Amino acid sequence: xxxxxxxxxxxxxVRRAARSGAMSACQAYRALGRQAKCGQCVPFARxxxxxxxxxx
Length: 56
Known about the structure:
Belongs to the Bfd family. By secondary structure, the protein is mostly helical.
């Protein structure tokens, strides 16, 4: 599933970044070499990161 249309960031990429230590959407995007643009994706990315942190 696509999380960020502006940057073409997929859910699995955000999950991988979270597993690698990203604690926020901004950190996850930076780990992927990108940054949030319009910001509409940030709540969804944050939700995915929170899910991954809960599993860990």
